[in-house]
Amino acid sequence: METYVGKKLAPVDVRHHSTVAISTFSSSTTSPVRGQTTITVMPRGQQAPSFFVNTYIVPQITGPTPQAPIVPGQWRHIQSPSLADPLYHLPQAVDLLLGADILPMLLLNGKATGKPGEPIAFETVFGWILMGPVDRNAQSTVTAMCLSVAETLDLSIRRFWELEELPVVRHLSPDERAAEEIYKKTTTRLRTGRFMVSLPFRKASPLLGDSKYVALRRFQALENRLSNDPKIQRQYADFIQDYLDAGHMELVPLENADNVFHYYIPHHCVLRPDSSTTKLRVVFNASSRTSAGCSLNESMYMGPKLQPDIHIVLLRARLWKYVFMADIKQMYRQIVVRPADRDYLRIFWSFSKNTTVREYRLCTVTYGTSAAPYQALRTIQELAIVDGKLFPIAASILLNDTFVDDILTGANTEKDAFEYQSQLIQLCSLAKFELRKWASNSHILHAVPVEAQAMSPALLYNDKNECELKILGLKWDRRADVFSFDTKPSETDRTKRSVLFDIDRVFDPLGLLSPITFWTKHVMQFLWTAGLKWDDKIPTDLAQLWTRYQSELKLIESISIPRRITVDEATTMQLHAFSDSSEKGYAAAVYLRTQTATSAYYHLVTSKSKVAPLKKSTIPSLELCGAVLAAKILLNKLLDIKRTIVNHLANKN
Asked: Which of 9, 65, 316, 588 yields a CA-CA distance of 20 to 30 A from 114?
């Protein structure tokens, strides 16, 4: 549903360059995208309605349309003087291809149909447009103007490299400091204990322009789609009804109906068949632009990233004998937005096409708004700070062992585990946060209702798969207390795109599979430097190696790695960091040696690897890079283990 503009028509300014694969018929690819920009589209000679559209710039959209001149005026049902293109009968270049998401906002009610085999006229805000055949005797030439865009690969690869990086200490930017100041000054506490926040606007009470027209047309298009799928329509309606029943949404008050300080948010649904709680989730698009060319998200400060690094949370979870996790139910929706800002969170909704479309406004922090992640996590921190003195252990867990809405923590005795669980439940309840999806390798689940557990409460199973679940994306067998890995290699042709997708599928945040991922990084580097297009097949020799890799990759499903890296009654613990390099790259691994009165135990804690830069480097310089990488792992406080001796061994060359 993207919009494309030809290079000839595109504005001079390119907002930013993009790497986007455009698939056409039979998965062939078009000329590369030159960049992105924003354009204004409006009817000729009018100022409204106008649409601000994000577009991709391409050298050419398609050939001249129509293929050959047409005799004008030959169809009686098409005699309107207000044609969008009065020269429709002459072959002309196509300079703009509007996405399907824009079409519902353009169509009006008019439609003119002629005889079979004649084009149909549709009324739009630009005038009447024609669709259909024009001459059945003409030579058949097919022009396809339906495209699909795959942007997710860039995001996946970006996440892959972010996962490979060590956490760094960041300093707040001016915008992030401004968001923090607004939070401190405007956040209050209701009598119920809930927190109430304001939207962190860059300018107080901004006038954002007209968003009602776009949001209403998109809702009408959504209604049409839902009417064709009763199951999805019912799930969507149930989701909205839950919003209403919980008090998280309300009708726009009559006294606010004419409030000019408002914004209407388009919405759509995302299906999540693997979710144990919400199979359908409504997503609110606060990035939709208004007639003034801005959006709600652009008018707010985003706030700093507050979630801890996933490495830290997972590594801490390996230190305890007993580990447990829980999910904060509807975390965003438990935080109230102050009434003065709710008109910026308006939506359209009706429970069926036979009922009146009504205007509602959301009353809580809303996913889809740019500030929502910051506001939610900042509120969790505020709860820990304000009420933490009552439950100090729970406060520490919220500050250090929480990743987004998932709590992952533990203890070395079941007595302590019960105490920590109790404190967490009590502290979270003070702000009306409810914990659910409990899972553990201990008996603390006995204190949790079955419906609030992630799986059956019994600790012993006949089927191994019944006691497996995910800890922040890692597969965990809580009965055996081990990590394991899934592999899902694609069955498609060996192209640059499919190979990169397969590389991204191996989720290894702790570096437990570094010997494998190190090789795939080399493959990625080669593909990036080989000049291949996204859907070009990879060279034959690499394809053979990749096929062998995929067949052998399934063997890692038989590997299980103990979650816990500590032991009872340890007398000393030593961290040993090793680093080495070759002409292909360098790596560092950290092991924990635990000594008891009778035995010594060794566990791989974490590892990191880097491919050598394309610019030729000497082995000694790469050895030094490996030593620095090992030192960064040790100094980054990833391993907060008391009574620990640290040794760092590096190969000297």
From this structure: 65
